[in-house]
Write a structure and sequence with these properties.
This protein is an alpha+beta fold. It contains three helices and four strands; from the N terminus they run ααββββα. The protein has one domain (about 15-120). It has a four-stranded antiparallel sheet, covered by helices on one side. Helix 1 (about 15-25) crosses helix 3 and helix 2 (about 30-45) crosses helix 3 (about 95-145). Bound molecules: zinc ion.
Amino acid sequence: METREALTVDPSLSTIRQLVQRGKKQKPELSSRIEKALVILAFREILPNGPGAWLIQSDDPSKYYEVSAEESDRLAGTCTCPDFAKAPRGWCKHRLALLLARKAARVEAAKEVVKNYREAQRREAAAKTSLAYAAAAGEVSRAMAGL
Ligand SMILES: [Zn+2]
C-alpha cells in the first residue's frame, strides 16, 4: 500500500471523555461500539482515501475497511466491514471512530481559538497595565523632579 498521511488527531482526554459520555447518553444502543471506536482512535491507522473516503485499519493490522463519510452530512456514510449491515443505522465502530475523530478535531480547534482569544485578552490587559504603570511612573518622576 502506498504511503498516505494518516489522520492525526491528538485530542485531550477530557475532550474524548466529553464526546464519549455525550454519545453514550444520546445513543445508549451504541455504547459498546463507541468504546471500541476509542480503541481504533488510539491504536489503528485512519488514512485518507480520496474525497470523503477513508481506510481504517482492522483489528487484523494487515486489513483495512473502506469508510465513506459525507462532509455535508456527517450522519451519512458507509463501511465495508461486516458489522455495517448489523449495527443500528449502520453505525459500526469504524464509522463511529471517524465521527469521533472529526468531532474531536473540531472541539480541539475551537478550544484553540478560545485559548488564543484569552491569551490575546491577557496580553492586552497586561499591555494596558504596563502603560498605566509607565504613565504613573512618569507622573511620579515628574512630581519628584518638581520637589
Ligand atoms: Zn465498519
